[in-house]
Amino acid sequence: MPRRSFLPLAVLTLLAGCGTGTAASPSAAPSPTQNNAHAIQAIKADCMKTKGFRYVPWARPTLAASDEDEKRTSGDYAAEKAYRSKNGFNVASLLAYRPDQEASKADKQPVDPNYAIRRDLSPAQQEVYETTSDTCEAQAIKQVTGKVVKSKDDWTIQANVMISRRWKRDLDGDPELAELASEMADCMTAKGYRLSGTTPTAVAFWGETTFRKEMHELARKEDKSIPAFDPEQQMAYLPYLTPAEARRLLDREIKAALDDLECGKRFYPVFRPKSDEVARQVDAEFGLR
Predict the structure, then answer these.
(1) At what angle do helices 200-222 and 152-171 cross, to 10 degrees?
(2) Per residue in 199-240, pLDDT tens?
(3) Residues 71 and 79 sit within 8 Å (Cβ to Cβ)
């Protein structure tokens, strides 16, 4: 069975430009996180070389956010409605639109050269390559950021947990957000939805968490070794769905996401800028782009 894909916390994808923007100008000064990413890659390449593997230092180019992404980050209603009408909470869309996304990436996006290097190895060598890659990446991350991680996946999980905790710490105690969240929760309850709580973070992420968990549980039915879903880590495994199955799940998700947006008209323009700033701070701390 092929190695399963993780569904990382969406905000990190959003901050990296969602893959929808254009490449940043080469003359632009690199950010501290870009410098960290390149430093990690250089150290990893040296480590891989000492282990007998070729590895090309490669950090995905930072993409400039599109005008629509900027509007969404500010909580713009029209931009968010257009996005949710197609992608819902951006969970099932990753499967429903996967063929289109893969074709787009192949045509437009730079490709990590190490995929080809790994692909040319024998199955046994690929296993060793992956283990060595994780070990070398962990060493590089610790050297550059001081973070102790086991692998790239663990790196992302730790960042997710830190983001979740700081959101709760910094946003759930915000009086304005608390009032707006309570108003939104009442609206969603009236529409028949069951939220896990009425705090700003519970209200903001109930939808994404709900569908992320559903996706994860489908994967667990296929593979009993997959651990239970952890709401704090927010790392969901992706199941193997047919295009029709993925589409049905996405249709349900889109309806919920649009209801959520209608109820959150006053909440999201206040919540989004504050939550994204917290995520950016953690992003920098962990050396993530």
Answers:
(1) 150
(2) 999 999 999 999 999 999 999 999 988 989 888 777 788 899
(3) yes
Number of domains in the chain: 1
Q: Is 272 part of any domain?
A: yes
Domain with 273, as residue range(s), is: 6-285
End-to-end Cα spacing for the chain: 30
Q: What is the CA radius of gyration of the chain?
A: 20
CA distance 10 to 169: 20
Contact 212, 91 (CB under 8 A): yes
- pLDDT by residue (tens digit) across 112-121? 899 999 999 9
Residue with tokens 């046994």: 124
SS3 label, residue 111: coil
For 254, other C-beta atoms within 10 Å of its C-beta total 19
Single-letter amino acid code for the residue at 1: M
CB distance 19 to 115 below 8 Å: no
DSSP 7: E
Q: Are 129 and 118 in contact (CB under 8 A)?
A: yes
Residues 83, 85: Cα–Cα separation, whole Å: 5
CB burial readout 165-186, b (16+ within 10 A) else e: ebbeebbeebeebbebbebbbe
pLDDT in tens, 142-155: 999 899 998 877 88
Question: For 136, what's the count of Cα atoms within 13 Å in the CB-facing half-sphere?
Answer: 25
On whether residue 1 sits in a domain, the answer given is: no
Find, among 265, 216, 275, 285, the residue nearest to 77 by Cα.
265
Tell me whether residue 275 is in a domain: yes
User: Can you name the residues that pair with 22 across neighbouring β-strands?
Assistant: 64
Q: Is the pLDDT of residue 83 over 60?
A: yes
